[in-house]
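Ticket #4471: structure output looks truncated?

Reporter: J.K.
Steps to reproduce: submitted the chain below (175 residues) through the standard prediction queue, then opened the result file.
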Amino acid sequence: MKTFEYSSSKLVPYKNIEVIKRVRIIKREEICQHHNPDFRIQVVGDEDVEFIWVTDMFYRINKAFEDNKKLVLILPNPAQCYRKLAYLINKFKINCKKIYTFNMGEYSYENGNVAPESYRQSFMRLFKKYFYSNIDQNLRPDEDQIQGPTTENIKYYSKMIEGLGGADVCYSGPD
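Returned output as attached by the reporter:
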């Protein structure tokens, strides 16, 4: 049987296939073992992910509000759990005017064209549906503080985050 060989997407800056192959085979029980004390990995069950995300996001948003500080979040693809986060923000009247969000991904083609927000399944469209539009208007950040990758910004998307001083937190998980 012929082995499937691949290369990194042109949009992904990391190209070392040997390292990619090595990390792909790390076992679940070994994933938290690494040499960087500043990088914390926690493996949780699927049933716990939504609870952890919503409570941690709410905690950080509320803390930024209380401390009157900017908060830069990198967020995974939209999920209905963002409605729960918006509910908590509204319930406790948390001002989100200093919140900046960056969606991790978007549908795209290999040639770099990214799905527009007008595409029915666009992650940005769904993020705004589940999160942004559910926050009371007087508590919402400006719409331009809610970002997703686009054909126009994909080449400098990381620089947009760096321009805000970097991300305060990045939520991730397998899709």
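Triage note (M.O.): checked the attachment and the full token line is present. The beta strands are 71-75, 99-103, 146-147, 169-170.
Status: closed, working as intended.
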